[in-house]
């Protein structure tokens, strides 16, 4: 008994330096942990470097080779085969059905990554220790504590907007943030092991109450563990989504409290794992502050007056969306990026990420923000009061409000290196895909600004891409007006290029699911089969969507399976498998009118004079069969193609699964000659 009770001191050093013979020391196991983490980061860095070399090679050779996106050397053929195998299991997500509701498990790639991380933690904690041996429980408790604290730098690095891991791997912070949340959950798991073995041993001698009441080190450890538990629970999406502004403030405060309690709990030899993440956090904040000052002080930019460089106008588009426009922005960006925007007079102490739908060549930043609650709702109310052309307007001229911007952020592989592109967007997801499509068209036209080239090492102008397939699913045709002029211009540009002999194609299809005027009274519109005068949409310039918009009620249906819960009041649930056939109309009008009469609701109209969308743009009633679309594009691709999807989680994962099935059926890069398919996915909200 004395040999056991003598170890109950649990002081700063305890018995941690008296491991049994042959058992690795605590600091050594921390080094092993970081050896594996560092190797994983190195592998991701090498993959990023290879992708950049491949990008440069394809663009450089596109002038002389028709199929520049097809691998030719043995190395790149092996790389393509390896990539195809990894993609086929990493993109896939198992669909689940419960009471006519369909949902998806997380994709296999992230799941395998996190399972591997948990396995690494378990191995580091229990290596050469016997969890059944009471005399080794304290050693396991110490080991778990040491492995827990050495995870802190990784968690903080993954949380930074501008961090080393993102720079090395080419992955945007918004994707690393998913890993940040899950590594924090893994940290909590490690802390449970650390606390569990100590409490289990104390419980055998009825010692828990004594330790909690009298031992300051135990009290500080319980405080740190409790704050960590709160940090993890409050970061779960349903709770986080209750109030984003409150979440951000309390998360930072709780994090600082956790670090303070942890600093008091751990021994001095381990405090390097506190100072390192604090240094990384301070570096990220200082770097962001520098960018913030540069982007927002007018004295640092020409043609700007006042203190702040950015003034935004707010315009209501319909009953739930606001267009925010910043003319002559002081920053440049790339298609697919987003910016944090804050307007403190309207929404104090809040900053939200919004996707940029315009291109730098447009000379303006534009966003479309869906009014939900908090800041986004305040933006919409302000726009209703100030915009001069509305019936409810007070007549006050909207000259713009001063705003702060932070960014741009996000990274996507350059799409002009792929032979064919498929864009799939659900509702406001088009604000992500339209600029990317326009960027390729501008490369085709030769109008892409050369100032976007960062260095002499960047590939020359031009694009490998030969074919673009653009698919957009919306509820009502009024939404098409957000991008009508951009889509029309793209069609005209491609037609002009084809007349000059360029072998390029652009095919645009818009699917409507809940619009009475199309789905009820008319059949699907196909070029050459319906007079253009019947395809009227509202005209306006491009806008962007709110990065954290909630999921819209539009979801791609895979293999003719329809979830009634996902479509709610939208009755046009059929999947259009053949766009070249005229299908019978959906009868949605009577249903919608009954619902409006029952609710007594009326919808305010903000529509502008309508005009004709280009007849070459297909309008169809129903939902797309994404797998057929991807398969048809893949059959014509001469090299690697890319699929870009943005929308509700259901649509995103259905698209991923469709790519997996097409890739598997065609035996991509397995001797059949079929070319690879890369997927970039943007889902509404966060996991």
TrEMBL record:
Record bears the keyword Signal: no
**Catalysed reaction, written as an equation:** 2 a Fe(II)-siderophore + NADP(+) + H(+) = 2 a Fe(III)-siderophore + NADPH
* GO cellular component term of the entry, any: plasma membrane
Query: Does Glycoprotein appear among the keywords?
Result: yes
Q: Which CDD domains match?
A: NOX_Duox_like_FAD_NADP
What EC number(s) is this enzyme filed under?
1.16.1.9
Question: One GO BP annotation here?
Answer: intracellular iron ion homeostasis
Compartment annotation: Cell membrane
Q: Which UniProt keywords apply?
A: Cell membrane, Electron transport, Glycoprotein, Ion transport, Membrane, Oxidoreductase, Transmembrane, Transmembrane helix, Transport
What does the record say about its membrane topology?
Multi-pass membrane protein
**Domain FAD-binding FR-type: residue ranges:** 279-415
Name the enzyme group at the top EC level.
Answer: oxidoreductase
Which protein family is named in the record?
Answer: Belongs to the ferric reductase (FRE) family.
Annotated protein name in UniProt: ferric-chelate reductase (NADPH)
Q: Which organism is this entry from?
A: Lachnellula suecica
Gene label: FRE2
């Amino acid at each position: 008994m004395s040999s056991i009770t003598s170890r109950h001191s649990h002081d700063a050093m305890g018995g941690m330096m008296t491991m049994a013979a042959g058992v690795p020391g605590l600091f050594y196991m921390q080094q092993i942990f970081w050896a594996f983490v560092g190797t994983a980061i190195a592998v991701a860095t090498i993959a990023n470097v290879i992708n950049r070399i491949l990008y440069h090679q394809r663009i450089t050779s596109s002038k002389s080779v028709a199929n520049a996106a097809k691998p030719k050397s043995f190395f790149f053929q092996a790389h393509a085969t390896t990539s195809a195998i990894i993609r086929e299991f990493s993109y896939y997500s198992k669909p689940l059905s419960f009471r006519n509701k369909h949902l998806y498990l997380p994709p296999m790639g992230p799941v395998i990554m996190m399972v591997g991380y948990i396995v690494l933690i378990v191995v580091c904690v229990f290596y050469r220790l016997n969890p059944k041996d009471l005399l080794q429980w304290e050693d396991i408790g110490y080991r778990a504590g040491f492995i827990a604290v050495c995870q802190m730098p990784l968690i903080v690095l993954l949380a930074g907007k501008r961090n080393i891991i993102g720079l090395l791997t080419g992955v945007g912070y918004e994707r690393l943030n998913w890993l940040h949340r899950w590594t924090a959950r893994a940290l909590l798991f490690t802390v449970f092991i650390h606390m569990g073995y100590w409490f289990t041993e104390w419980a055998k001698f009825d010692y828990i109450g004594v330790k909690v009441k009298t031992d300051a080190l135990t009290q500080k450890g319980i405080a740190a563990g409790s704050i960590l538990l709160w940090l993890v629970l409050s970061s779960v999406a349903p709770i986080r989504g209750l109030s984003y502004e409150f979440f951000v403030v309390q998360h930072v405060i709780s994090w600082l409290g956790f670090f303070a309690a942890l600093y008091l709990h751990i021994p001095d030899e381990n405090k390097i794992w506190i100072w390192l993440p604090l240094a990384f956090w301070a570096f990220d904040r200082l770097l962001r502050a520098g960018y913030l000052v540069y982007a927002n002080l007018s004295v640092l930019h020409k043609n700007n007056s006042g203190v702040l460089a950015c003034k935004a106008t707010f315009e209501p588009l319909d009953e739930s969306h606001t267009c925010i426009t910043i003319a002559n922005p002081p920053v440049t960006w790339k298609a697919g990026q987003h910016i944090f925007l804050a307007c403190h007079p309207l929404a104090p102490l809040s900053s939200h990420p919004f996707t940029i739908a315009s291109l730098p060549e447009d000379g303006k930043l534009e966003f479309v923000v869906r009014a939900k609650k908090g800041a986004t709702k305040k933006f919409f109310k302000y726009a209703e009061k100030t915009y001069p052309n509305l019936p409810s307007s007070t007549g006050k001229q909207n000259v713009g409000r001063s705003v702060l911007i932070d960014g741009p952020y996000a990274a996507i592989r350059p799409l002009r290196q792929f032979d064919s592109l498929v864009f799939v967007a659900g509702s406001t997801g088009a604000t992500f895909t339209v600029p990317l499509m326009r960027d390729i068209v501008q490369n085709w036209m030769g109008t892409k600004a050369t100032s976007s080239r960062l260095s002499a090492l960047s590939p020359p102008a031009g694009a490998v891409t030969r074919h673009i397939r653009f698919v957009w699913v919306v509820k009502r045709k009024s939404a098409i007006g957000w991008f009508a002029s951009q889509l029309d211009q793209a069609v005209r540009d491609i037609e002009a290029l084809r007349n000059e002999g360029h072998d390029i194609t652009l095919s645009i299809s818009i699917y409507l699911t809940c619009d009475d005027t199309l789905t009820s009274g008319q059949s699907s519109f196909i070029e050459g089969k319906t007079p253009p005068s019947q395809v009227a949409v509202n005209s306006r310039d491009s806008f962007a969507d709110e990065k954290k918009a909630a999921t819209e009620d539009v979801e791609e249906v895979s293999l003719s399976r329809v979830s009634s819960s996902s479509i709610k009041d939208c009755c046009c649930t059929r999947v259009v498998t053949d766009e070249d056939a005229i299908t019978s109309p959906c009868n949605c009008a009577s249903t919608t009118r009954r619902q409006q009469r029952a609710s007594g609701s009326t919808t305010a109209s903000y529509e502008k004079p309508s005009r004709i969308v280009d007849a070459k743009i297909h309008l169809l009633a129903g939902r797309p069969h994404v797998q057929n679309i991807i398969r048809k594009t893949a059959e014509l691709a001469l090299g690697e193609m890319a699929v870009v999807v943005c929308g509700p989680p259901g649509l995103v994962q259905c698209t991923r699964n469709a790519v997996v099935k097409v890739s598997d059926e065609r035996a991509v890069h397995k001797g059949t000659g079929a070319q690879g398919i890369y997927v970039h996915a943007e889902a509404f909200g966060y996991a």
